[in-house]
Amino acid sequence: MNKRQALIAAALAGICAGTTLNAAAHDGPAPGDKEKCYGVAKAGQNDCASSDGAHSCAGQAEADNLPTEWTYVAKGTCEQAGGSVKPIKAGTAAKPATQP
């Protein structure tokens, strides 16, 4: 392996490691006084992976208010917005939540 190949390999390894750490940090505990709220995210505005495994990235919600999609909200406001702090179980059919 020549120096150029080694440099490229090191750069790619650094990018992959940084992406993995960033993804792991984003899916961890809610920042500050926020909580995950399922069923209130708008299409394309979810914060991370869906609870049913349909996708693993932010911004991929296909419809508004799907119960498998979540976004961070201020603690204590999730139920008031018509959402739930508990995800639905994997394999359960996801349908848009109805607004009261």
UniProtKB/TrEMBL annotation:
<dbReference type="InterPro" id="IPR018740">
    <property type="entry name" value="DUF2282_membr"/>
</dbReference>
<keyword id="KW-0732">Signal</keyword>
<dbReference type="Pfam" id="PF10048">
    <property type="entry name" value="DUF2282"/>
</dbReference>
<protein>
    <submittedName>
        <fullName>DUF2282 domain-containing protein</fullName>
    </submittedName>
</protein>
<feature type="signal peptide">
    <location>
        <begin position="1"/>
        <end position="25"/>
    </location>
</feature>
